[in-house]
């Protein structure tokens, strides 16, 4: 056999089949692709979009487990230019349109569409505002065999046995661990907020923070976005109804702005007529639309609807008389001279009362425009506790640091130490199920405070979620009793 014949035979063995390659996507789910993106497990940090533009991922973003884009606040260099925004993940590129993201303004901050496999012919992905963003096909850049990576992903996400589960606990030592973690979490929050101080004054910082906290999981990002569109300084000398008109109008939530035309009984209501009139004469009404109804979630309890949250913020802004800081800070300062646990708890109760105002006017009996509800506070007690712990006290602490007041720093930390516990969340419940497994050892024996709950959240996020069992603070600090032999 001649050399030419041998070469031809070899080429036949490696000749590509004349059809488009399509991977087996049945075993690939979106969670797998999200983990792939989060860990950036690619053989080259310099990738290309499907329209051949170079990209470099500086920060993959913060993993968003709720509604909206999968990763928030990513930093990506695209074609030599830095972009900061969100990233949406899909298994197939066609899912962007199948999921109707192109009709949802919530995705207008997306800067990159990252997909496992490109099954579409669109080189650019269209946003609701008409802009186009690039798509990157991750399959081309995966650094390991996809089967191995998939198995590895499944192994790390499968519920395993926690090393603490079923063990005898030293409750006092465990309480100390959670309190220490809770303090660390508080100081971490203050540090992250201090970074925002490079571009925000204290009023805007606190205003954005409270708005975010009011939104719970579904509307927190939208409410912060609204606060950025309508700065706190613009409310100066405005009435409560004027503030409502500005916020509802920019949010795109007034009855006249809704996709579904409201009933006459809604549009003819004197309160709504006044609100719509104030919006029409507002300086913001002349600007291009910032947000639409599609940006908001109305699922869940009616009392948590974004309309009631915006009404709550409007009422709070009106009551603070031009300064949110001076509305809350004097009460925080009282902790500097409080000498008993009872007096500290009285001060914390005062802070809650500043937030839990009685509703007035239209929102006294409505959860949305045209939707009646029973009378209830616009901000409930549990939500007030969350705002105090996660927003007001961290901002007050930063104020104390910048003012050079060690006394006020200690006062804020003392208030944090006695903060009331919440009704819990899914992370606290998950850790409860992991650790407190017998009737003799229940979480209630810790006498949980907000600080302890924050410590539990830090344990889960910094250790449990990443399976860092060898570094578990509970084991390191001997909060598990030795087994009897």
Task: Walk me through this protein's architecture.
- With 485 residues, the protein is of the alpha+beta class.
- Among the domains are: 21-157, no CATH class; 204-210 and 219-382, no CATH class.
- It has 18 helices and ten strands.
- Strands 1, 2, 3, 4, 5, 6, 7 and 8 form an eight-stranded mixed sheet that branches. A two-stranded antiparallel ribbon has the order 9-10.
- Strand 9 and strand 10 form a beta hairpin.
- The longest helix is centred in the middle third of the chain and has 26 residues, at 171-196.
- The protein is globular, with a radius of gyration of 27 Å.
- Mean pLDDT is 86; it is low at 10-21 and 145-159.
Measured between the Cα atoms of the first and last residue, the distance is: 77 Å
Quote the average pLDDT: 86
Shape: globular
Q: What structural class is derived from the secondary structure elements?
A: alpha+beta
Task: Please outline the major beta sheet.
Answer: 8 strands, mixed
Record field, number of beta strands: 10
| Number of helical segments with 4 or more residues | 18
Give the C-alpha Rg.
Answer: 27 Å
**N-to-C order of helices and strands:** HHEEEEEHEEEHHHHHHHHHHEEHHHHH
The portion of residues assigned to helices is 40-55%
Kindly estimate the percentage of residues that lie in beta strands according to DSSP: 5-15%
Could you name the ranges where pLDDT drops below 50 across 5 or more consecutive residues?
Answer: 10-21, 145-159
């Amino acid at each position: 056999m001649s050399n030419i014949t041998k070469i031809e035979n070899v080429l036949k063995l490696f000749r590509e089949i004349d059809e488009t390659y399509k991977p087996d996507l049945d075993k690939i789910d979106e969670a797998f692709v999200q983990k792939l993106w989060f860990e950036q497990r690619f053989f080259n940090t310099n990738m290309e979009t499907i329209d051949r533009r170079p990209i470099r991922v500086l920060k993959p973003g913060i993993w968003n487990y709720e509604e909206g884009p999968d990763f928030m606040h990513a930093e990506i260099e695209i074609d030599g230019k830095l972009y900061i925004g969100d990233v949406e993940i899909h298994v197939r590129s066609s899912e962007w349109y199948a999921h109707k993201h192109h009709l949802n303004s919530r995705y207008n901050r997306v800067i990159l569409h990252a997909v496992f496999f490109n099954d579409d012919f669109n080189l650019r992905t269209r946003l609701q505002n008409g802009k186009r963003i690039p798509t990157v096909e991750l399959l081309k850049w995966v650094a390991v065999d996809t089967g191995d990576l998939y198995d590895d992903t499944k192994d790390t996400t499968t519920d395993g046995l926690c090393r603490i589960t079923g063990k005898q606990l030293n409750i006092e030592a465990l309480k100390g661990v959670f309190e220490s973690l809770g303090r660390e979490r508080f100081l971490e929050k203050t540090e992250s907020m201090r970074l925002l101080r490079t571009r925000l004054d204290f009023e805007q910082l606190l205003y954005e923070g409270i708005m975010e906290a009011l939104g719970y999981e579904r509307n927190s990002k939208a409410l912060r976005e609204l606060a950025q569109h309508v700065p706190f300084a613009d409310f100066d000398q405005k009435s409560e109804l004027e503030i409502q008109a500005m916020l509802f109008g920019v949010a795109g939530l007034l009855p006249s702005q809704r996709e579904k035309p409201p009933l006459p009984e809604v549009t003819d209501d004197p309160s709504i007529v006044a609100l719509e009139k104030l919006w029409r004469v507002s300086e913001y009404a002349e600007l291009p639309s910032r947000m639409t109804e599609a940006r908001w979630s109305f699922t869940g309890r009616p009392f948590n609807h974004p309309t009631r949250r915006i009404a709550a913020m409007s009422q709070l802004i009106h009551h603070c008389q031009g300064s949110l800081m001076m509305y809350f800070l004097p009460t925080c300062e009282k902790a500097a001279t409080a000498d008993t646990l009872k007096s500290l708890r009285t001060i914390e109760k005062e802070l809650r009362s500043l937030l839990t105002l009685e509703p007035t006017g239209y929102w006294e009996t409505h959860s949305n425009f045209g939707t009646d509800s029973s009378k209830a506070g616009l901000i409930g007690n549990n939500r007030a506790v969350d705002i105090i712990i996660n927003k007001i006290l961290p901002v007050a602490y930063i104020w104390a640091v910048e003012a050079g007041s060690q006394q006020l720093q200690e006062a804020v930390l003392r208030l944090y130490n006695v903060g009331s516990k919440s009704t819990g969340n899914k992370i606290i419940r998950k850790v409860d199920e992991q650790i407190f497994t017998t009737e003799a050892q229940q979480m209630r024996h810790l006498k949980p405070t907000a600080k302890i709950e924050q410590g539990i959240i830090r344990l889960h996020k910094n250790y449990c979620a990443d399976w860092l069992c060898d570094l578990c603070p509970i084991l390191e600090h001997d909060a598990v009793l030795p087994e009897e032999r």
